From TrEMBL:
<dbReference type="InterPro" id="IPR002226">
    <property type="entry name" value="Catalase_haem_BS"/>
</dbReference>
<keyword id="KW-0349">Heme</keyword>
<feature type="binding site">
    <location>
        <position position="415"/>
    </location>
    <ligand>
        <name>heme</name>
    </ligand>
</feature>
<dbReference type="Pfam" id="PF06628">
    <property type="entry name" value="Catalase-rel"/>
</dbReference>
<dbReference type="GO" id="GO:0004096">
    <property type="term" value="F:catalase activity"/>
</dbReference>
<feature type="binding site" description="axial binding residue">
    <location>
        <position position="408"/>
    </location>
    <ligand>
        <name>heme</name>
    </ligand>
</feature>
<dbReference type="InterPro" id="IPR011614">
    <property type="entry name" value="Catalase_core"/>
</dbReference>
<dbReference type="GO" id="GO:0020037">
    <property type="term" value="F:heme binding"/>
</dbReference>
<dbReference type="InterPro" id="IPR018028">
    <property type="entry name" value="Catalase"/>
</dbReference>
<feature type="binding site">
    <location>
        <position position="118"/>
    </location>
    <ligand>
        <name>heme</name>
    </ligand>
</feature>
<dbReference type="GO" id="GO:0006979">
    <property type="term" value="P:response to oxidative stress"/>
</dbReference>
<comment type="similarity">
    <text>Belongs to the catalase family. HPII subfamily.</text>
</comment>
<dbReference type="GO" id="GO:0046872">
    <property type="term" value="F:metal ion binding"/>
</dbReference>
<dbReference type="Pfam" id="PF18011">
    <property type="entry name" value="Catalase_C"/>
</dbReference>
<feature type="active site">
    <location>
        <position position="121"/>
    </location>
</feature>
<feature type="compositionally biased region" description="Low complexity">
    <location>
        <begin position="1"/>
        <end position="16"/>
    </location>
</feature>
<dbReference type="Pfam" id="PF00199">
    <property type="entry name" value="Catalase"/>
</dbReference>
Length: 749
């Protein structure tokens, strides 16, 4: 059963905010307290990073000597202060004196609060959790954290790729899904995306693709979007990007939530078992809630209504107790000399292996159960690197992966200000560290000993190197040969067959969304030659796709220049079909004081009990009071709610417009109001319901609420009119299992 969540962006209050006597709660006060009270402890859904010393040893005394724990205001040197509101002046009207050391320190620190944002994946959010291994991978890897029943603390950071740190969440983009496993053998980072293939086959082209997709240099627009000339210029010339691009034009690029995204390690990795035997693998994260996306119109609305949509969704779900979960799985392939599987080059990161050919085998479960206690310290300062490996997991010669092994360490030098970023609390391994690395900017450790070199006798030979038997990482002795050359294998020249496989695997409604996405993005380009070149690439993927996009652009559809391959569709690539748990789904309940509040109370309980999150949407914040002695708490108002926030909407009454109505008068007004006609329904409610209907969400009503559905034109599949709140919810929950009412989409492809 989930708990009430904090009101989020709503104007309304929420009972979760004001539970008297709850841990960390204080009596509400209108003025600043004048006696020290100590800082508020973290909320139940938040977790600080684990206390580890700068050299990686678990050390409660290292909990963070620099944390803001004292009750009294001080300078950075610990000097107590009596006033931080007035500069030291010559008389009350100044001027300000240069000797004001407190002013200078305070402003100096503020002036340097910002660090460079990540060059890509700048916009993100994260959460703490645990990975529990099933042990099923133990036969192919000696990695300790993949042993049976082993639990490993993790931190996950989700991100968009293109936008700046302050950009909106629901843009059309690839999403990052980076996981740091704090294993007892050192940190392992799985730095993944929500798309299983990449734009380029060789890391040397990463600056090119990113320069093309980032805002255009002259005017620095557009922000966080691929819908502009330079992006389409690059990908239409550089056709190895076309497979990734068709994923980016699909619903995958506008996830409903980070909770409903798949994750992919993209590259082929090499697992090593206890006897040194090797297996090639691809990593997959499968969301327990299923893969679910926004519609493009929803995404556009969300970015205005709530730019923090995905961040808020993640934190609200965790706070409500609906802890997001993903199963980690691997596709396994024999480690043959040619490193191909069923004709697919496993070293080509623009290719996937269909799950129908190599099933994803589950190896463990990730659960995110705690929000960060400090965003900067944890989400901003975390530093991932595909070269953070543990014994039993090694890299392959994928040229994209090889370049990443250089880039991630390098970027932290500028972003985190020097080589000691592994000592930042969120980056510290939970394994003991004795690395002989010394000094440098922001050194936190007070290293003991006098011999940070090997071999030595001065420190008694410490630290000691060990062999594989004692847990050392040993590279797989793969033979390497070849002349130095700048080239790619012939197999890398196939740029269209898997883009076509993806297209052919889509359901009609998904195809329609892809056509619209291409037409939208190319429609934003100014250069006709770029649109024409991209249409040629589409012709090489599929003639119907090309024709439909060409029609939308008002351009002729070109003939293909390559013969399309006839691939068997891979049903696993489609998001449509199947049913999923409804945990953590958001149910909007429209009500006013004249509605059936007894039904609303029952409904809220039933929604909670089903593991979903009920949010009551009312004409005003505060409470809806029908005089029963059990007022209903309001979480969203007609002013603050938009349909995009809800997975389903239930209507408990037919609220009439009452501009500036005083909340206190509800009880009497509610009791006195007669039933309303459909014509009088508040237009904000009609809009909310009509939008939810257009976006193919489940809708329900009982009692007077039916009139609202009628007025909004909501009728047909997925629209439930029940005799009671409970009965309506039951049908809505069944519909939600399929994520959307797919039959409601008009499909023309
Ligand atoms: Fe990358 C960040 C994922 C190719 C260079 N990348 C970054 C993040 C993710 C990925 C999830 C954000 C990590 C975080 O949350 O801090 N990147 C990928 C995937 C790729 C990929 C799945 C291909 C399969 N990346 C890639 C290449 C290069 C980089 C080819 C450079 C040659 N990526 C970086 C970076 C970033 C980064 C510049 C920016 C911030 C950071 O590393 O720490 O080094």
């Amino acid at each position: 059963m989930v708990k009430d969540v904090v009101g989020g962006s709503a104007g309304g209050s929420d009972d979760a905010l004001t539970i008297p006597g709850a841990p960390g709660s204080r009596p509400p006060t209108l003025t600043e307290p004048d006696k020290p009270q100590g800082p508020l402890p973290p909320k139940a859904d938040q977790r600080p990073v684990r206390p580890v010393s700068p050299t990686g040893n678990l050390d409660p005394s290292a909990a963070d000597a620099r944390a803001q724990t004292g009750a009294h205001l001080t300078t950075a040197q610990g000097l107590r202060l009596g006033d931080t509101d007035h500069s030291l002046k010559a008389g009350p009207r100044g001027p300000v004196l240069l000797q004001d050391h407190h002013l200078r320190e305070k402003i100096m620190h503020f002036d340097h609060e910002r660090i460079p944002e990540r060059v890509v994946h700048a916009r993100g959010t994260g959460a703490h959790g645990t990975f529990r291994s099933y042990g099923t991978a133990a036969s192919v890897t000696r990695a300790g954290f993949l042993g049976k029943g082993v639990e490993t603390p993790v931190f996950v950071r989700f991100s968009t790729v293109v936008g700046s740190r302050g950009s909106a969440d629901a843009v059309r983009d690839t999403r990052g899904f980076a996981t740091k496993f704090y294993t007892t053998e050192g940190n392992f980072d799985l730095v993944a995306n929500n798309i299983p293939v990449f734009f380029i086959q060789d890391a040397i082209k990463f600056p090119d693709v990113i320069h093309a997709v980032k805002p255009q240099p002259a005017r620095e627009i557009p922000q966080a979007q691929s819908a502009h000339d330079t992006f389409w210029d690059f990908v239409s010339l550089h056709t190895e990007a076309q497979h990734h691009v068709i994923w980016q034009m699909s619903d995958r690029a506008v996830p409903r939530s980070y909770r409903t995204m798949e994750g992919f390690g993209v590259h082929t990795f090499r697992l090593v078992d206890a006897d040194g035997g090797t297996t090639l693998v691809k990593f997959h994260w499968k969301p327990v809630q299923g893969v679910h996306s926004l519609m493009w119109e929803e995404a556009q609305l969300v970015n205005g209504a709530d730019p923090d949509f995905h961040r808020r969704d993640l934190y609200d779900a965790i706070e409500a107790g609906a802890h997001p979960q993903w199963e980690l799985g691997i596709q396994t392939f024999p480690d043959t000399e040619d490193q191909t599987f069923e004709g697919i080059d496993l070293l080509d990161p623009t290719k996937l292996v269909p799950e129908e050919l190599a099933p994803v085998q589950p190896i463990g479960m990730l659960t995110l159960d705690a929000a960060p206690t400090n965003f900067f310290a944890q989400v901003e300062q975390i530093a991932f690197h595909p070269g953070h490996l543990v014994p039993g997991i090694d890299v392959t010669n994928d040229p994209l992966l090889q370049g990443r092994l250089f880039s991630y360490l390098d970027t932290q030098l500028t972003r985190l200000g020097g080589p000691n970023f592994s000592q930042i609390p969120v980056n510290r391994p939970h394994a003991p560290v004795n690395d002989m690395l010394r000094d440098g900017f922001h050194q936190q450790a007070d290293h003991v000993g006098n011999a940070p070199y090997k071999p030595n006798t001065v420190d008694g030979g410490c630290p000691f190197a060990v062999g594989a038997g004692d847990g050392a990482f040993v590279e797989v002795p793969e033979p390497v040969a070849g002349a130095k050359e700048r080239s790619a294998p012939a197999s890398f020249a196939d740029h269209f067959s898997q883009a076509r496989l993806f297209w052919l695997s889509m359901s009609p409604v998904e195809k329609e969304h892809i056509v619209r996405a291409y037409t939208f993005e190319l429609g934003k380009c100014y250069e006709q030659a770029i649109k024409e070149r991209q249409l040629l690439a589409l012709a090489n993927i599929d003639p119907v796709l090309c024709q439909q996009v060409a029609q939308g652009l008002g351009l002729p559809a070109p003939e293909p220049t390559v013969v399309p391959t006839e691939a068997a569709p891979s049903p696993a690539l489609s998001q449509v079909g199947g049913t999923w748990p409804v945990d953590g789904r958001i149910i909007g309940i429209v009500a006013d004081a004249a509605s059936d509040l007894t039904g609303v109370r029952e409904l809220r309980q039933a929604v909670h009990a089903a593991g979903m999150v009920p949010l009551v949407i009312a004409p005003h914040g505060g409470m809806l009071d029908d005089g029963s002695g059990e007022p209903v708490t309001v979480q969203r108002t007609f002013l603050t709610a938009r349909s995009v926030e809800f997975d389903a909407v239930l209507v408990a009454g037919a609220p009439v417009p009452a501009p500036d109505a005083a909340p206190a008068s509800d009880a009497k007004a509610g009791a006195a109001q007669p039933h309303v006609t459909a014509a009088a329904v508040d237009p904000r409610v009609t809009l909310l319901v009509a939008e939810a209907f257009r976006h193919s969400k489940a809708l329900g009503a009982w009692g007077d609420g039916e009139a609202v559905l009628r007025q909004a034109g909501a009728a047909g599949p997925g629209v439930v009119v029940g005799t009671s709140a409970g009965e309506t919810l039951e049908q809505i929950a069944t519909l939600l299992g399929a994520h959307r009412v797919w039959e409601r989409f008009p499909v023309t492809v």
